[in-house]
Each structure stands twice: as C-alpha cells, then as structure tokens.
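Lecture notes, unit on protein representations.

Consider one protein chain, 297 amino acids long.
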Amino acid sequence: MTEDANDRAGPTSRIFFSQRLRLHYVDWGNAAAPPLLLLHGGQDHCRNWDWVAERLRQDWHVIAPDLRGHGDSQWSPDGNYSMAGYLYDLAQLIHQQQLAPLSLVAHSLGGNIALRYAGIYPKKVRRLVAVEGLGPSPKMLAERAKRSIADRMQTWIEEQRGLSGRLPRRYASIEEAFKRMQEANRHLSPEQARHLTQHGVNQNEDGTYSWKFDNYVRAWPPYDMTVGEVEQLWSRIDCPTLLVYGKESWASNPTEDGRIRHFATARVESFEKAGHWVHHDRLDGFVDLVRDFLREG
C-alpha cells in the first residue's frame, strides 16, 4: 500500500477493558506522532470525529474512544453511567496505551470528563480543547441544588424504572434514521448526517435499525461531585485550555456566567452560525483553531 493510500485509509478498530467492560476505540495511525485523544459527547459515538481526525492525523497520533454504553463499546450491565466510571475508562485507556502526556479535544459530556481528568492529573495533559464541556449552567445547577436528595433519588428511581421498559426506537430503514439525525441538528450537511447515522446504528434481527447507545445513558445520576469539587478540579488544570462555544447553542458561555474565573489557563472562543456541535457546524474554522492551538508553545 502506498503512503497516499495509507493517508486515505480509515481508522483501525481496537478494544480495551475497563471495570470488566469491553470498550472500543479507533486508532488513526501515525503512532510516532504526539498523541491526541478525541472524546465524543452523550448519545454519540467516536466516528463523529472522523472529519477532524482526517485533517489532524498527519501531525498527530489520533485516538477516539466510544464511551461505555455508546457506539461499539459494551453497555453497563446494571444500567448505571456515573462520571466516576467514565473517568476511570479514560484513565485506563491513557494508562494502558501509555499516551500521557497527551492532548485532548472533547465535546459536551466528553468535555466534562476531559476537564475533570485534567484536574485530577494535571501533568498528564499537554493541551485541552473542550467544546461546550462545562455541563449545566450555574442557574440550572442552583435549581437542582434546591431539591432534596430524597427528591432526586425518587426522580432517578422512577426514571430508571421507565427506561427499563423502554425499547430502543426502531427505524424501518437507515434512510428513516438519517432523517431523524437531520432533524436533531439542522446545521449538518446531508453528507455529515448520513455518515453519523451509518456509524451510529445497528441493524436489529427483524431488519430494522436502532441507535447504538444504551437508553440508560439518558438518565441524570442522582448525585455527583459537588459544584465546589468540580470547580476545584478546574482550578488545578495547568495546561493551556481552550473552551469553544457556538453562538446558536443552548449552552451557557463561561465568560458570561462567570465560570471562566475557575480556570487559570483557559480562554474562550465562540463561533457564529454554530450550535452545540461546533466541530460539525463550523468544521473548517474549528480545525484551523484547534490546529493552531495545539501547535502553540
């Protein structure tokens, strides 16, 4: 195979184990280059990074995992998806593949995980890009804090009970699932939506298609680190950090809500004509920004 053919080849699927779960990731090759790990968001999958990975693979050893319960990774047998579990999985992948120190680019839930990891292990992260990864806004967290632990536990139990009886939605064809993907993000081009759909569904025994992620990942855990503990982790991050936001997103911008004050080394960049998935909605501008940021210093 020629070098050009290698450049065009897709990633290699690999497996690692964490807390007895069989977890999947893709490796884009170029193992001699500095490691760059791409972490997707909730109800998503690792192949949502393909366009970014294809443009960065020449200069970086790009690895993109599927979170537990997502993509081609195993579902949690008890239906629980805690932040501690996600953090352990990330720590295990980095440890097992000896990736540290590495750079991280992460989206939404993945960004939340990556930011906490960088606070737990500051010396293991060289540079960090989090796309809308700070989680719920301070206003939302304040409203949640007003609820008692008994109330939160009751809500969670009812939600789990409801999810236990909820069957994955079945689509008659990939085309039908593709249309649902387009409805979920109007910024996607048809090519993007089709690619994300093709890698995001499994075919059921009856010939229908369902999304790969476990329905239980939809549940909000009844408890987590406190707000103060998360902010403490953010303050421990000592690598250059880039927080990226879309101006048409629902997410709260940290420069406006005050959360930027908890970061010692972070700056915020916002994109016009972009929603929550900035790396899809403004691909060219996003890749240029990330490439320049990773090369700094």
